[in-house]
């Protein structure tokens, strides 16, 4: 349910040491996202839905300059805007991120991930 990843609590189902979970476990599934509703990091929306006792809320554009995406490889707590601008690689350690995550931006970020 909770795992400490680089000093940050990450909540989810079967969370591994680099934030992979039972729902997304490829070698590029290495981020966790802070949800606006609770301020907790989850590897994915499915983990939030399975464990949280409230509906999820997207991070609003006004929060995009604050940390909100944790790289499970290096532990960088990236501002949302930096994560969105980085594309498929961590701007701190160059670890590969799953490009398929873009399909879910509308579930995590207000304005459908627009910057």
Describe the structure.
There is one protein chain. The chain has 3 helices and 6 strands, in the order ββββαββαα. It has helices spanning 45-51, 80-86, 105-108; strands at 2-5, 8-11, 31-34, 41-42, 67-71, 77-79. Strands 4-3-5-6 form a 4-stranded antiparallel sheet. Strands 1-2 form a two-stranded antiparallel ribbon. The chain is globular.
Q: What's the SSE blueprint?
A:
Blueprint: E1 2-5, E2 8-11, E3 31-34, E4 41-42, H1 45-51, E5 67-71, E6 77-79, H2 80-86, H3 105-108
Antiparallel strand pairs: 1-2, 3-4, 3-5, 5-6
TL;DR of this structure?
With 115 residues, this protein is an alpha+beta fold. It contains 3 helices and 6 strands.
Main sheet specs:
4 strands, antiparallel
Number of domains as seen in the coordinates: 1
How many helices?
3
Order of helix and strand elements from N to C terminus: EEEEHEEHH
Helix content: 10-25%
Q: Find the count of extended strands (DSSP E, 2+ residues).
A: 6
Based on CA atoms alone, the radius of gyration comes out at: 12 Å
Would you identify the regions where 5 or more consecutive residues have pLDDT less than 50? Answer: none
Q: Termini separation (Å)?
A: 32 Å
- Mean of residue pLDDT? 95
Across the major sheet, the strand order is 4-3-5-6
Task: Bin the strand percentage.
Answer: 15-25%
> Shape, please?
globular
